[in-house]
Amino acid sequence: MGNPLTHFDNAGQAHMVDVSDKPDTKRIAIAKGKIFVSAEALACVQQGNSKKGDVLGIARIAAIQGSKQTAQLIPLCHPLALTHVSVEFEIDELQSCIQITVQTETCGKTGVEMEALCAVNVGLLTIYDMLKAVDKSMKITDVELFHKQGGRSGEWNRQHP
């Protein structure tokens, strides 16, 4: 039996997985994450008065850009032609946090999970960067893949207890 970790050959050497024999299918991934911020930082986001500008607008563009750069950041990822990337934010005033949800799509031989996860992280890091003058204690957390579909493994959804 071969190595179950697909990025290693039978000798344990890292390699980029050969996907040439796989059929092109529509691939979708959804990832989410949160950043907990102070009330003052959250007010800056809501009022649009951050010194650096529109926090969520810039974070949206950064997340999209991050999704497109995934293969440059993660050594064994295949470069993908993304067909769609959407980024949504949800502000939770009670918990003083911002949740980002990213959906990535392509039609190809390999999935877009890493692109969605990379986009979430870049979006959250951008929020941190834009608000750090007000709050250095922000906490990025709960970055997770929630959904994927396409390819041999079909559909997968995160199951929370």
Describe the structure.
With 161 residues, this protein is α+β, with helices and mostly antiparallel strands. The protein has a single domain (25-149), classed as Molybdopterin cofactor biosynthesis C (MoaC) domain (Alpha-Beta Plaits). The chain contains four helices and five strands, in the order βαααββαββ. The protein has helices spanning 39-47, 55-68, 70-73, 113-131, and strands spanning 25-36, 84-92, 97-108, 139-149, 156-157. Strands 2-3-1-4-5 form a five-stranded antiparallel beta sheet, with helices on one face. Strand 2 and strand 3 (97-108) form a beta hairpin. The protein is elongated, with a radius of gyration of 18 Å.
